[in-house]
Amino acid sequence: MSEESGRGVYRIIARREFVERARDRGFIISTLLTIFVLSAFIVVNALFNRETRFELGVVGGSARATGEQVAATAKALGFTVTLRDYSTEAGATQAVRDGAVAAALVNDERVVVKSSNGPGQLVAVIQAVSNRTRAQQALAASGLSQDAIDRALNVPPLPVRALEPVDPQRTQNSAIAIVGILALYGQLFAYGYWVAAGVVEEKASRVVEVLLSTIRPSQLLRGKILGIGLLGLCQLVLIGVTGVAVSRAAGILRVPSGALLTVGVVLLWFVLGFAFYAGLFAVAGAIVPRQEDLQTSMTPLSLLIVVSFFLGLEAVQTPTSTLAAVASMLPPSAPLTMPSRMILGQAPLWQGLLSGAILIGSTALLLPLATRAYSRAVLRAGRVRVREALRAERRG
Amino acid sequence: MLELIDLSRRFGDVVALDRVSFSVAEGEMVGFVGPNGAGKTTAMRITLGVLEPDGGGVRWRGRPVDATVRRRFGYMPEERGLYQKMRVLDQLAYFARLHGLARSDARAQALRTIEVLGVADRKGDRAETLSQGNQQRVQLAAALVHRPEVLVLDEPFSGLDPVGVDVLSGVLREQAAAGVPVVFSSHQLELVERLCESVVLIHRGRILAAGRIADLRAADARRLVRVEVAGAAASWYETLADVRVLDPLPQGAILELRGGARERDVLDAARAAGDVRHFSIVQPSLTEIFRRAVSEA
Predict the structure, then answer these.
(1) Which CATH architecture has domain B2-213?
(2) Which sequence spans correspond to the domains of chain B?
(3) A197: left (phi over 0), alpha (psi -120 to 50) or beta
(4) CATH classification of B220-296 is 3.40.1350, yes or no?
(5) How far is Cα B75 from Cα B97, in angstroms, rounded to an integer?
(6) Which domains, and CATH codes, for chain A?
């Protein structure tokens, strides 16, 4: 018989927690469903936010020259125009009719569109470019020098003063931050619940008595938290990697490295947040006799997480507010508020580090207390009050 | 030798154990008997470290039992506990791992144990799909899977059918024969009498008697006869002088002869009452010893 040292016991426990749950059909289905919903969300989002682009048919050399100016102007205005040459007007008209091109410019003489309420943005640019070309030609014909013509036509555009600065990256980052907060919220809740439910399962079925005649309660708890936490982390990695891959494929992410950073931030805060909450969920499970009583004993924790979630959403809106800054420093709400501030680039590095250190420190203080309460409560029949569990010595 | 030394334990105002001491030698099978609430389960839970004693301790091979030593003990708690959703073989291999077996050894041992206990055909099934009796066998397998040095079983026979009782009896005999000290609690005293050489009798947290059943019998000086008569009036023996009825039987009784009562007078009375089918001088059964000890306590 080969003896294993008692130190490795928590790994055996973690392995069971991981394998038994990962093999569960419900878990596999819900993971696949999450990935499917996320992918669908990204694809649909991509379809609606596709960059504005038009195909413009051109017939004749002069139209080609005008078309190039149209494309250049359009680019400056934030949309893309690509040109397609047609040798005859009939060919270009047919292409418009078929929808192969949005409009056709024929010999600098006329614009063909499918219906009059067609691509207004494109037609407006063609009109503007064409107006300018024709004005230039008219002025040249009236004998003005090229200099004078340029002076007349090259007037600077009216300055536009925006009252609210727009950062397109910011909008996208907000969306990513919200997805990240949602994922963290769901994951902390689901896996915290699993810790509590796993503890009750062992207590209600009395298997805990078999286990604790062999191993110490602290080993059992450590293994359980490690196994369930690892599973949550793996699921999150899977979802995150799929999300980034699908986004890239759908072409909606302008900065993929930013998305990877987001996934990294979410994973890190899941680990920190889960470590903080898992011990508390274990106590919530240990003090009740049956699964049905779990809802009640988990209520304070559920409230804490839900409030933190709303603070997290608030932090996406106003990442620099005092509320967001304070919430991202408090251990219970930090895992759901600091990540969005980091993703949005609105938290200085020192704040991120400080918040992480506070969370790790409070976990280090809390976990031994939680282990103590868990150890005392899990072998006692019936409902146990937390204060009793903390105070009482180990009794059955 | 497994020794329980001066174990004391209170629950609030209730004294569950009051300086309880007894020992089980290697290869010895000891029945732990006593009325409900006598303290059997408390003593066993303390032995397995699930409960802390207020005083006293447990020693194995002369040394105090700690967590490392306890991993080599086998325990079947009174309130059975299995992972209902886990498959039988996986579950037992897991318990074996917790007891310190290497992974491949754990699996082989799990398989071997359920073969011995006759539930090998259910190895891939979840525990919740097994009948009560089969779950009980799996529970016992959990206590045996790691080749324990010591076996402590709380009511292992309760809920088993006669075939299950035979299987379990055989397994416990084998364990004892292999040198394992076995202690189990039971209310089925005939069974204890059949299986064990020694018993420990506990009542209200105190040991009333402990030792070899043969010695306890020898110490019981009562004269008993077992008599069975066909076709007799139901209460023919109740009128005999100096004779007390210990145990009524369908066609007779076990009678205690006191003072001047003589065996031959009882036999005469029996013959007068009807056809004598059985007449023998018997030793007190464990049930009788138990009853007497408890009533005198």
Answers:
(1) 3-Layer(aba) Sandwich (3.40)
(2) 2-213, 220-296
(3) alpha
(4) no
(5) 15
(6) 10-46+169-391 (no CATH), 53-153 (3.40.190.10)
Nearest to B99 among A20, A214, A393 (CB): A214
**CA-CA distance, A385 to A365, in Å (whole number)?**
20
Per the structure block, which two tokens stand in for A146? 């090229």
Q: Where are the beta strands (DSSP E) in chain B?
A: 2-11, 14-24, 29-33, 55-60, 63-64, 73-76, 150-153, 182-185, 198-203, 206-212, 223-230, 243-249, 252-257, 275-282
pLDDT tens digit string along B4-21?
999 999 998 899 999 999
Tokens at A200, concatenated: 């009750």
Instruction: Please tell me the number of Cα atoms within 13 Å of A70 on its side-chain side.
Output: 31
Mark yes or no for CB contact A209/B79 under 8 Å. Answer: yes
For residue B77, give the nearest of A209, A216, A394 by CB distance.
A209
Query: How many helices, marked H, and strands, marked E, lie in chain A?
Result: 15, 4
The ipTM assigned to this model is 0.86
Task: Read off φ and ψ for residue A181, nearest 5 degrees.
Answer: -65, -40
Chain B residues with CB-CB distance to A12 below 8 A: 94, 97-98
What digits encode the pLDDT tens for the residues A207-229?
Answer: 999 999 999 999 999 999 999 99
3-state class of B182 per DSSP? strand
Q: What are the tens digits of pLDDT across the range A376-387? A: 899 887 788 888
Taking an 8 Å cut-off on Cβ atoms, the answer to whether A214 and B71 are in contact is yes
Predicted model pTM: 0.79
- Sheet of B275-282: strand order equals B243-249, B252-257, B223-230, B275-282
- CA distances from residue A171 to A49, A230, A347, A372 in whole angstroms, order as listed: 12, 32, 17, 46
Q: Which residues of B touch A202 (CB under 8 A)?
A: 81, 83
| A144-152, long-range: CB < 8 A, 24+ apart | none
Distance from C-alpha of A104 to C-alpha of A91, rounded to nearest angstrom: 10
